[in-house]
Amino acid sequence: MHTVFDPLRLSSISMDVMAVNRGTPQGIVQRQQARLAQLLEATLRGSRLYRSLWPAGTTANTPLEQLPMVTRGQLMANFDHWVTDPQINLEALRQFTADPTRIAQPWLGRYMVWESSGTSGEPGIFVQDVATMAVYDALEALRRCATRPLARWLDPLGLTERIAFVGATGGHFASYASVQRLRAINPVLSSTMRSFSIQVPTHMLVAQLNAFSPSVVVTYPTVAALLADEARSGALRARPREIWTGGESLSPAVRTHVQQTLGSLVRNSYGSSEFLAIGWECAHGHMHANTDWVILEPVDEHFRPVPPGHPSCSVLLTNLANHVQPLVRYNLSDHLTLHPERCACGSPLPVITVQGRRDEPLIMAGANGQPVTLLPLALSTVLEDEAGVFDFYLHQLDDTTLVLHIPLEGEAGRAAMVRGCAALTAFAIAQGVTAIEVRAELGQAVPRGRSGKACRITACIAD
């Protein structure tokens, strides 16, 4: 299958990434400024939306802080005027992403496409050209910390690894689409890299992982914790040497639980649909931001700059790699702290602390008194993909009862509630929950956590 990949471009960017690894913070700033000027020039030339939003007289050398911030809703509402290639059309892209058989296939023969899950209430569609993908590939390959240096030295391409991605596999999501793209680029990976859906019942997922026996598992922290629980009970016999987590906040408690129970080394990363490889975790356990290719501006609740060392209410992201679908001062809504001190690992890249989504697993009643865990990402995927509900709050009342809150009212709200309740009920039963009641409440605001993102799924408090 043809895919979006240029080995020569990847080689060129990889050499620059390696140079930055051995460079200085001043060298990163120089790269930022040069790449920002190129981005602004391309955006001014090709994006009608940004030209209408930016002050008169804006040039490629205009300081970033003089430009207005933008939101996902604002950009998606003006999608066709946002992108710089007039051949890219939102309606056609929606038809493309509606077809799961086309995941990781090139759009128009030259674009990688993925969709966001709609955490903020507004799903997004993101388009990357070969230049953008080369940046992501280089950052992932050369910045992700090797947990077993000797093994990586003996097998630099990871051909002896058996890699299992465990996540949402029903849509064009960035992580799953990226796995499928890698398998298409390197046929050897077709047998050594596999994807497993978090939407199947837990016992089926465990059986599949036992049969595959992965050496590396790539997943979300809540899934890693679930797998550790299954290993502790004796159900999961597979013992991966490494666990790579991302997509959710990884707490110290979950890290310790996973490492001690599975005996696996855990490495965390930070990314988003808007920029796939924002940060990586070094051997000292610190998250480093790839600021040679992405600019992060921590801001307070009034979108004013937050000084280093202080937590933000949100962060404005500027993607320096993507000139096709520019993201300039984009409100990412994550809670982030940019630390002023250099890391002892020697990297010139800044250290950040990220507080992202902290949805909770729901423990429900199963057969013979056995608990059944419903994973938050699986629940949100069911509501988004199967029910078309993106703005919601799901609260567990007890081990048999869920309460689904939707801000919508009127006929639209009632229709969304019927779809949501039916999808949740069917999913819970398929997972092994023996008695399930999903109650409906319309017109309820979705609560927001400290991260600024919606706290969409919360568990009941045990007595």
Automatic annotation (TrEMBL):
SUPFAM superfamilies: Acetyl-CoA synthetase-like. GO terms for molecular function: ligase activity. Keywords: Ligase. PANTHER family: CAPSULAR POLYSACCHARIDE BIOSYNTHESIS PROTEIN. This is Phenylacetate-coenzyme A ligase PaaK, adenylate-forming domain family. It comes from Giesbergeria anulus. The lineage of its organism: Bacteria, Pseudomonadati, Pseudomonadota, Betaproteobacteria, Burkholderiales.
